[in-house]
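Input for the complex:
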Amino acid sequence: METFGDLQKDLLAEAFNLGMGRAAASLSEMVHEEVLLSAPEIVFMNKADAAKELGRQSSGDVSGVSQDFSGSFGGEAMLLFPIEKSLELVRLLLQDTVPLENLTEFEEEALNEIGNIILNAGLSSLADLFKQEIQTELPSFRQGSCEDLLQVNTNTPSDNESVLLLRVDFKLEKNAVDGYVLFLLDIQSTEALIDNINIYLKSINVL
Amino acid sequence: MTTALIVDDSRVSRMMIRAIISDAKPDWNIIEAESGDDALSAIDNETPDVMILDYNMPGMNGLTLGEKLKDKFPGGKISLLTANIQDSTQKKAAELGIAFVGKPITDEKIRGIIQASEI
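Predicted:
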């Protein structure tokens, strides 16, 4: 793989930060309150370890939305949060449209739409920065353990291969809803992403 | 009577858009469809004046549908309302003469689309 040095990592963190900033602004617009973000975390680890680590931190099953993306680099983007927070998020989105007693009926579709908007906002920033076009598949709702959601099967060799994992935690200031956004890229896509980063760094004369 | 066409595979999105339009324009006729093909069947005997289209849907995307609707209803106002806010998507919409509005759906954005259709 091409070198993934400090400069490349720094630019990727900045690009991801921009994307998540845009995603947070979208979420804030939907739920009418401030969204706080953590600093982005960028690590290489295998999928099985990533699932274990996320499971340890989540202390229980999670709800979420997953969206595959493709282009010059591709992968899977996920929005995840503790299962008990999902209805609260739906309530914040639909409070003016759906009576409280009917919220459960719309939970899955509402979360898909929230995921679609947040994940697309993040991906759009990456696409725009690198002057690329990224195609996204339709969002899909998931619920279960982190291993289930990351579709990890430790007997599958590919799950023991390294992936590039980008993660940002978010928190709604008033309503105690928290969760995180993950982008997972396999080695081939990571190489393509690094190519894009290097082209960008050259274009601004820092490489 | 003014007719609005809402095309989005997300039922929640259609509900939110409908609620805002109904509040702003209670006398408008609103047609909903969850895909491009459904939309084309639903408007067989209608002439939509305002068309709000999602981009990423099963089957044809919102820009392909927009092109067809533009040919069919040259006087109608078409807006692409999408989570795909990439520059490339905005550029394609502009090239087709379709207004671009980024999701999330808000009262202001839908009222903006309504106002623009009245100019």
